[in-house]
């Protein structure tokens, strides 16, 4: 169990209903431990020290300006100037060292603290997911909480680290500048800084409007992520029904809502930055103008005071310019945190972590249901269980029988305490189960569900999830022995031994790489490994072949001895020996008794037994499998043949081979940006306006260099012309302020338009490319649906981070650096070259190193956190299984290991990346020191005037500052580069492996045989062949006696479902070919081919939405309501749907959880029948149906197929459903070993006859 002390650092274990208004940034720091807090304090202290360095620099700058002024006036001799310059230069070097060290320490400390803090938040949030009631995530509108953890944590980490550090430094610079300038001249300081509060007010208003917009966008993206997770986790169904366009359309609906909200930020972004630059340059203009007036009146005696205050005002205003853009990111981080805290704060009424409740010393297994009534939370007005009372004695086996939707599986959920009854109570050994400790209760129960749930991992990992706490404490060797023992008991050990890595073989997400029967046997092994006191078997053998069913039934009979066993079954052969059989309908008990008693009554149960009987006579199986090529068989089956392939048959290599070696292509940053911009031709007018505004804004940097130097020069001139010039150039500074306001307002507005459009497009493109990928693409471990859903969120976020305001700021900084450097070279190449080549190469080199390091780190963290997101997504969708196995702690530990590994491996690269960043932020002090030293020398020898010096010096200084700001934003560059490379990589995968046919416009032939010629096949991730030379042929369907139904029979894992997958073109044969008429199906248009093929899978897949939405999945145009009713009538689901209050518009819930397994399957059958397919593929289509529904559905399928001349290829273990097939092909070990009708195979095929005997109910 997750004990309270395992809670993440700094957060109480108990659930607390904290209002959303408290979900702000300070609460995030509750997840920081003492070490993290120490790092935070150290980072803040170092940041303050680093920030103070800039205002101190203004004192030195002002002092040297005064010295240069006096030197120009002749009041200071060269020797005194040299001495003063040397002293000041040393102080500049001290400031450089201090800022370098302090910036490095602050950046490293806050970055490490942020990833550790968000690590704790991730872990705690995931734990809260595991502790939430299982029904909560079935509620419509919940979104994708697992993906939300990844994306929100990334935003929060950025908000804590870089953004918060920049805000702290900005505020420090502002406060220190204010203090320094107040000390130097308080009156001028108060006058010049009066413009700054206006910027505060405007920014505050913008942030207040921005916060709810960010929250609305986060909600829309969460809904999109939930849809993506559902679609990608059932990609086979999406492809089979050509539902890609429909899914993309639904996904785009959520993106459009987010885009609509994002467009509201148009004006907000404009006002977020532009007031700052208006204040900066207006403050400079006011400082010079007012300062000169005060200088003339004698209130200021020294030019150095004015220059110090001007620089302090500039620093104070520009520091707010550093702060305000960060507020948008901090707002986004706060909105992301609010979403996570809303999940964290949700109280859990059935919390498996709490150490509450009674723990009896033993469990006998006496179960009682006393007037139990229950309705699902999503449909409280429809009771599923209605006043049900039943007593189940300890050690007895009770079977529950009834039609689909009668409440059988709901009883399992109530016993497992996934839900609590609406009325009545359930007791265990006399204790109300609500008073028992939840973990203790669930550890007494072993559950095998109707649809087996396996997890990404190895066979060993999946079976070992069933171990008890005591068993997990055993050695590794002992655990492996227990796992092998359980697998032997469940008849799966032999199959596992044949896998490439045995028990360490990866079986993929949901066990997709093995058959349904194999998954079920692994689930049974997982259940029985703990020797539970109570067994709950919800259709445990529904996915097994007759022989395996017989074997497993013997195992279950053996292990259930001494256990209280509740069996839910449609196959009555599995429950005939039950001590008691309970028949329920509509949530009420209608019949009770033993098998013989109920047969004698001749009621509902007896009719079910009769319907499932295969024969009234028993035939003796032969010792060997007879050849199917007897003369009688050959005559009666002239239309069928097992053929040899043509000598020139085309060999088709598996299309997924290229996926095993994914394209690795490294693109430069410029190439990535050029690719993005080249694809946005429709936005070129917007880009052109941004470009014009950017050049206007960039021009202010060299312009202010000229204005600064001119003003300093005229301050040195005491003539009336000097005063007039000061007024003129101060006015010019005000015009620069107006120009910057207009430019940055346009940049803010237009960049929002650009970023919203581009990220909308790439989110949609990523999803579209993923959903059109070959099925083989999803078979790789790194391509789990959870990981891909996380990628769908993080990749566009990274692009948006760059393409919002950052890309324009970077462009401005580049242009400013080049323009300022050119200005300096034009006025004096000697000093300019020394300063430029002394500083800029270091800046460029450090920035390049930082981008490289951060890119590599981001790519690795993306992989790690995508893996963690995949695990979280899988856990949420399989929460019932995790709850029943009480393996919340183990799942959390696995998630924690992944996150901890990412954090641990990030520390060294982060510390390395902080070095070039610190250098880029402090190098300007060295440039200034060198400039003052060498410039004074040039002035003393008469090469440069003071005006020349200041123009060159300030221009190079501004170029350095622009370059520093460029690389300060390099983090977004590295992240965007990785995102763009992934996009290009995905495009390459899609183009090379999209399964596009050779003749994309070629339609399937209207008639002609379906033939399979010497087909060999193995799954991409495994070399073990699944099909070994399968050949069969079915002749044309257009004659009155045409073949309409063929069946594939055989043991689990013999290749039946794999052959259906090849017919659906999920994969391509390793060799051999499948033809429809004269055409190889691989040469037909994939979309049009699938229009003629329809699939009903063994495990039905429904999507969030209405029943109507699920039935018409992928159809265009949409069928009429009458056509939908007809399909539902054929699938025997119409009466049930019409009985619902909302009928066709009833919401199915996530994964169709609002419906029973049988109801889901019948809706899936209706979905297939409404398409009127030429070829209908049924993969255990009736396995989840009760006997009565199965009979009706089977009759409907037979009638529809014969009336419309359709070909049905069915896989079935329940042989009663295929006895009337035109031909049955028997497969074993990937080969066809016989074919014929049911009666012929009973006589001549020992394997088939043996399977029939195993299912016979009324042997005589």
From TrEMBL:
Compartments, record wording: Cell membrane
SMART domains tied to this protein: AAA
Domain ABC transmembrane type-1 intervals: 41-332, 688-975
Region ranges (Disordered): 1-21
GO BP annotations, alphabetical order: oligopeptide export from mitochondrion
Stored InterPro entries: AAA+_ATPase (IPR003593), ABC1_TM_dom (IPR011527), ABC1_TM_sf (IPR036640), ABC_transporter-like_ATP-bd (IPR003439), ABC_transporter-like_CS (IPR017871), P-loop_NTPase (IPR027417), Type_1_exporter (IPR039421)
Annotated Gene Ontology cellular component terms: mitochondrial inner membrane; plasma membrane
Annotated GO MF terms: ABC-type oligopeptide transporter activity; ATP binding; ATP hydrolysis activity
CDD domains given in the database record: ABC_6TM_Pgp_ABCB1_D1_like (cd18577), ABC_6TM_Pgp_ABCB1_D2_like (cd18578)
Predominant cellular place of this UniProt entry's protein: membrane
Family: Belongs to the ABC transporter superfamily. ABCB family. Multidrug resistance exporter (TC 3.A.1.201) subfamily.
Protein's name in the database: Uncharacterized protein
Source organism phylogeny: Eukaryota, Fungi, Dikarya, Ascomycota, Pezizomycotina
